[in-house]
Amino acid sequence: MMSCLSGTDPRARINERAFFLLLLHRRLFFHKDKAKKKRIKESEIVRLYRDKAFLIIGLAIRESFVSVSDYTEMGDHRNIWSFMGVVLLVTCISGEDPYRFYSWNVTYGDIYPLGEKQQGILINGQFPGPQIESVTNDNLIINVFNSLDEPFLISWNGVQQRRNSWQDGVYGTNCPILPGQNFTYVLQVKDQIGSYFYFPSLGMHKAAGGFGGFKIASRSVIPVPFPPPAGDFTILAGDWFKRNHTDLRAILDGGSDLPFPDGVLINGRGSNGYTFAVDQGKTYRFRISNVGLTTSLNFRIQGHKLLLVEVEGTHTLQNTYDSLDIHLGQSYSVLVTADQPAQDYNIVISTRFTTQVLTTTSILRYSNSAGSVSGPPPGGPTTQIDWSLEQARSLRRNLSASGPRPNPQGSYHYGLINTTRTIRLQNTAPIINGKQRYAVNSVSFIPADTPLKLADHFNIQGVFSPGSIPDNPTGGGAYLQTSVMAADFRGYAEVVFENPEDTVQSWHIDGHNFFVVGMDGGEWTPASRLTYNLRDTISRCTVQVYPKSWTAVYMPLDNVGMWNVRSENWARQYLGQQFYLRVFSPANSWRDEYPIPGNALLCGRAVGRMT
């Protein structure tokens, strides 16, 4: 019976140890009063989850309220084994998408990323955190225990959370996990493939770690437009500060911007701290994500070409590059063939568009290497905007390749759909009340006392107002506001990001992918639409906007919920360059949006409400 969950079929692999821990752990949901740990009836589980896809997990949660000692006291050790058998049997018989279980303990720990001791945020003792391995449509049950001394949340960069913004893991949708407590995320990677990452979303936790890779592989029945690689490597790269995350937060709270970073890390380590082993003549996949705070990066490998195959869930035309610009929050996937003489080679990542260039290296080591790295690391582009712009324009969608479904990616004709709305978003850097802030269309976001999604669900007045951020730049003075933009479900929006500043911007939209139809220097005008690529541009979730430039995207508003639209420059996001997009359906149907989960954490003005 176990084979139907953990057999040779990669769709069915499961972390069985985490599964058992999930069933046995007496504090899956935190209760201070142990006397209140009561068994929950199956009917209540059905009420809590209200969806067949989550029923099995609900039953598992039911059992978790009974500790191992409770079973001993009842003199019935067989109950849990019988229960697990039922869960496995039902899962196999129902033919539902596989479940993967994770149990994560978030702690502080000593790390030495730049050679000096720092306090980092670890997940199960790891920095970076554990990699999530999944397959299209998998259900992921991730139980997060907060062993820090401050509230904590994890968000999933690029995971669309179809119909389920309840699991998005940002403060606008979720109450923080308080110290000593836990929360179980229930995700489904519905109709997605690709390379992504997760990260801690509150405050400046991201500056201390807590991030990790997130891979969604294609189902075995879906053709992939390249042969299986000999290996699959994840590279989490980003700028890094030696200062503690609380010190960085204090700098921002004091009204200043962050200083220049101290270095760049590859998988949590400084120069030559990480080695990738390859066999000569074989081809390997590298998934590279920029998980940093403030800086665009350039990626290259000494003596080797990069064959681009995927960008944030889109299979691309397979163009070859010497190096790739990867902006904040972005993820790319390349194939690299070990076709050079057998020795060690530098993998190089350096900062882009900075006066001072920070560089770090890792080692690409051939298994039959005859020697160490020869020569200095290859140089890369530094401040050249036009070079980066032309590379960005060269990214194209592979129209004949399948995505997460069998049909070709080109079967969705995004350029033939009439847009229902144009939204222009302009970033600025105002001083408000004597402090540095950042704004979108003159509105600098401030968090409410209650997550916006909860306030919306419970109809709590006075937390936010839909329409509290305009669709266009106002040119007026900037002000503080809990900004929420209203949007209609099944609309089709043209979104234009306008950047009048001298720095590169990087924008991310939760819950959606969008088609990058155009980007150029100068001001956007309606005539700019004549330059749009309406045939084969890529679909992604994070896009750059160059200095004094604009970027336009087409976005289907096909996911009901409360979604964060933010700068991926974490200082700018923290100081207000974000807002929430409320995609609303009047149908109030489970077909459009899942109901509030029974384990939803409540805080602020939502305390005491019934879920």
TrEMBL record:
**MF (Gene Ontology):** copper ion binding; oxidoreductase activity
Instruction: Specify whether rRNA processing is a keyword of the entry.
Output: no
The family database entries (SUPFAM superfamilies) matched by this protein are listed as:
Cupredoxins
Q: Does the keyword field hold RNA-binding?
A: no
Pfam families from the UniProt entry: Cu-oxidase, Cu-oxidase_2, Cu-oxidase_3
Q: Which CDD domains match?
A: CuRO_1_AAO_like_1, CuRO_3_AAO_like_1
Q: Which InterPro entries match?
A: Cu-oxidase-like_N, Cu-oxidase_2nd, Cu-oxidase_C, Cu-oxidase_fam, Cupredoxin, CuRO_1_AAO-like, CuRO_3_AO-like
Annotated organism of origin: Manihot esculenta (Cassava)
Protein name, as recorded: L-ascorbate oxidase
